[in-house]
Structure prediction request, 288 residues.
Amino acid sequence: MNVKAFADKYQLVNWFKGTIFLLLGVLNSRFDVGFNWFVDNLIFGAIIYFLITVSGMLLVLYLKSPKENAEKRFGKIEIIKFISAGLYLAGYGFAGIIVFYFARNIMILIVLAIIGIVWGISFLYADTWKEKSIVINLIIAIMVSFGLLFGALINDLSIPIFVYFFFLGAFSLQLSKDLLKSCKKVVKVRENTEEYKLLAELLTVKKSQNIILVLQSLTIVFLVIPLFTDIFNYFLYLIPMLIAIILIVISAIFNYIYDFETEYMGRVFILMRSGMFCLIIAYFFASI
Prediction:
């Protein structure tokens, strides 16, 4: 397995993307706490959320994996499940130490407990659900973008309103990007080695296209709304935000005009990935 295949299989990019959004959440709410508290939250929050994110991506891998050898007690698939659970427990345990030793917000543990319940239900029931690709895509999109809210929550219960829109913008763009990736595999007539249907197969490519356009439109709205709130740096946020919007609009136009022709799908995906990069830069500049 080459590096690219390994990174795709284990969602390595999402490990770090989720952690980056966590750091951005802490940065964009840092004025609610003192400097030492802020630095501690950057370090401890990144460690906690990294563990939880990796746990989530391994859960996704578990749900994607065929289960023909599931009867093996210590088979590869079962090991993935145990590692995912172990990383979650490590993240939750570390969060517990931080909350009680440093007198942090106990809501952190409540939120992580809810995530743990979702993980447990997914392990027990989602794997047998024929439409589990819906769960897979939602887990990826939420874990990547939720770091923004979790980072702000680590600082204080009163999360700035613009952080909610930052989260919604990142979530809708990530979900649309993953749905496009699903369509790309379907259009290329992939070998159906998985025992589940991709989301684009469940929805059909045409419906997926319409959903992607809606999600892209929502992303643009969620990027613009923070301009009318109390973000810390309006002007620095504006420039990369406009670039992100332009890239998303161009990708939406290509998506609509060329109707998922294989020749253009790679370009559309690159545009959306570039839009995500500019979105991250915009969120960072907003915190300066």
